[in-house]
Amino acid sequence: MTSTYAQRPWLSSYAPEVAPDVDVPDEPLGAALERAGTAFPERVALDFMGRTTTYAELTDEVDRAASALISLGVKPGDRVAIALPNCAAHVVAFYAVLRIGAVVVEHNPTYTESELEHQLADSGAVVAICWEDTAVKVLAVAARTEVRTVVAVDMSRDLPGIKRLALSLPIKKARELKSAMRTKVPDGTLMWHTLLRGASPLEDSFPRPRGGDLALLQYTGGTTGTPKGAMLTHRNLVANAVQGAEWTGAQRKVDAGEPGEVVYGVLPFFHAFGLTLCLSYTLAISATLVLFPKFDVASVLEAQRRRPGTFLPAVPPMLDRLTAGAVKKNADLTSFRYAICGAMPMSAATAQGWERLTGGLAIEGYGMTETSPVALGSPLSDARRPGMLGLPFPSTDIRVTDPDDPTKEVAPGERGELLIAGPQVFDGYWRRPQETADSLVVADGKTWVRTGDVVVMDGDGFVEVVDRIKEMIITGGFKVFPSQVEECLRRMPGVADAAVVGLPGGELGEKVVAALVLAADATGIDLEAVRAWCEKNIARYALPKQLVILPDLPRSQIGKVLRRVVRDQVIAAG
Questions:
Q1: Torsion angle of the four alpha carbons 111, 114, 115, 118, in this order, in degrees rounded to the nearest 10
Q2: Domain parsing of the chain, residue ranges
Q3: Which GO terms describe its molecular function (predicted)?
Q4: What is the pLDDT of residues 62-88, one digit of tens each?
Q5: Angle between helices 30-39 and 55-71 (to 10 degrees)
Q6: Cα–Cα distance for residue pair 451/458, rounded to 1 Å
């Protein structure tokens, strides 16, 4: 495809070595893992709390796990649920399902029975591979779904032998680790490691899926409504890995024979951000993945002494906590060349703190489950702009349109809804044709996904997000963007955090309500004080008309403020 700066203004801001477009091979996601097993058989692919798995060992385990799944009756196209923390078994199960042409359905292993039941029933999964704690919950609801086999994973089996033996010691640390790893499951429950031990490697002649085949159902939308399964193909996932490798230069390093990256998998794999950056991108560039069942500063610093990391996919609060922890422990983090953050804006203070400590870069990116997920990123150079989402990835096009008419582009510099087109854009929502039609727009010969995010793009192609359409408040006919009011409130002395939501407001339509978390030394903060502070910076129609004080703000597992939950809390507070 021929590209011009006029058509794609962001290309003028690209680093010289980054291509505007990439070739996406027509192959399954697992093809890159198989190549790594041949090219780098002795390289460490996985490090789970000190236990290592080489690429040769990983490809062998995936083959045996694929064979084991076939023995359970799993066929190409069947959905297989995975509900596991980050561990070696998660990686093996993920690629084994894909190898036989089945479809992975990722679930948060801490979900309640009702949340798991909804997603399992919706996907039609026939097998569920679960952490023992989750397996107990799935077994309780399996009869009301199509799940016919539940396989429980004893995570302690992925530990180094010495650590596994230490779990039996009568000391607090050992007991805490054991309770985090293990839960008693009903007698007769099929165990993952037992299943694999008796499996033979899959015959190489067993058909591999094609690039256009469905690979993953990733549930999304839980903060705004009933979760729905985004359908991601092998081509979508391969494309995003290739785009990421071009953006970071990782593939160029592999081609030059340089040592592989060491990626820290602190983000949960059941989330699209962690899945792509760790499970697919990392193994596609033949890197070493260091696995963490949950984010914990002490565990990361311990791993850093054992196997120094070079790349950290994270959310901004993780960088803050690691920076503070490393300073306190006098730990060396200078091996990290870059961290890529998403899910929420990264403050200049967070970026500066990380970069000062590591000597590397703190880069922002943007994406959504529907874009596999990465669609934009800041350059890995001095051209980065803290607080901005960055530039569209190679082979990615964007439009900024009228939120009420996605076919009408707004003028440069004006607010509008972000639309994205590219090979990473999903195929739609599982069994939800109307919601698919509402989300995808065909224009200029391309299929665009509506993000629901309100953005501004400058003349250099850098994009800044300013709000969510669904969270926009309409009061007296005026549109109020919550993030603008929140930004003003967070600067107010005595305010530690803020969230702004809309509630029914009679003739106004909606009224603006501020939920504040106060600093420990806060005094004299009431609605009158809040309005007096805000009226210096925002329009009168956007001033809060109600104030609620909360002990903290509800957040998702990756740190996003859940405004829907805040709204419910405000209503409950009366």
A1: 150
A2: 54-209, 472-572
A3: ligase activity, forming carbon-sulfur bonds
A4: 999 999 999 999 999 999 999 999 999
A5: 140
A6: 18
Specify the CATH number of the domain 54-209. 3.40.50.980
Radius of gyration over alpha carbons of the chain, in Å?
A: 24
387-396 pLDDT, tens per residue?
889 999 999 9
**CATH architecture entry for 472-572:** 2-Layer Sandwich (3.30)
511-535 average pLDDT score? 91
Helix axes 30-39, 234-248, angle to 10 degrees: 50
Match 């030059």 to its residue by tokens: 256
Q: What's the CA gap between 327 and 227, in Å, rounded? A: 40
pLDDT of residue 30: 98
User: Are 403 and 308 a contacting pair, CB within 8 Å?
Assistant: no
- According to DSSP, the β-strands at 214-220 and 103-106 are parallel
- Cβ neighbours of 272 (radius 10 Å): 27
The closest alpha carbon to 510, from 485, 536, 535, belongs to: 485
b/e burial code for range 433-444 (CB count within 10 A of at least 16 → b): eebbeebbbeee
Give the pLDDT confidence of 262-310 residue by residue, as tens digits: 999 999 999 999 999 999 999 999 999 999 999 999 999 999 999 999 9
C-alpha torsion angle, residues 423, 424, 428, 430 (rounded to 10)? 130
